[in-house]
Amino acid sequence: MFRMKTLAATAVLAVLSTSAFAAVDRIAKIDVTADLTAIGNEKAATFWANLETDLENAIAARVTDRVADTGAEILVDIREVELASAFDRELNLGDAVLVGQVNIKDDTDNSNFDAYELSVSLENAQIVLPEGTFLILSTDTTGAYNRLVDTFAEGVVSRLK
Length: 161
Prior knowledge:
The chain is an alpha+beta fold. The protein is built from four helices and seven strands, in the order βββααβαβββα. It has a five-stranded mixed sheet with strand order 2-6-5-4-3, with helices on both faces. A two-stranded antiparallel ribbon has the order 1-7. Strand 5 and strand 6 form a beta hairpin. Helix 2 packs across helix 4.
């Protein structure tokens, strides 16, 4: 019989604020910014190179029914220091975290405002593996990257009520 080990490996969402949800019916713009030139670690900068586009697309894919010419703007500013942290410490990607400031603004309806910090990591969720089996999330895998991006996008969209 195998003794089971519990390892952290899936994306977990942590919203670090208690603000109310924005009542967003229409979305005119989704803009994600991350100053990748601020990342001193070359491997980290390469790994996150498409983050802005990928995160914008992941959010847009979840709100296609709300896209319009006028409406709210979803503005996300990713903090660069967290993008490099797992690489700087020479740990595996399981330590990676995606943190960003999310602002929802609507020039036509001031009640559609929200601002919060959103943090997604590959910690705290559990995968059970047989004894002697190791799970390593390396910087070469796109699975972990996609999981972080998708979970962050879901966190943003889930607050658009």
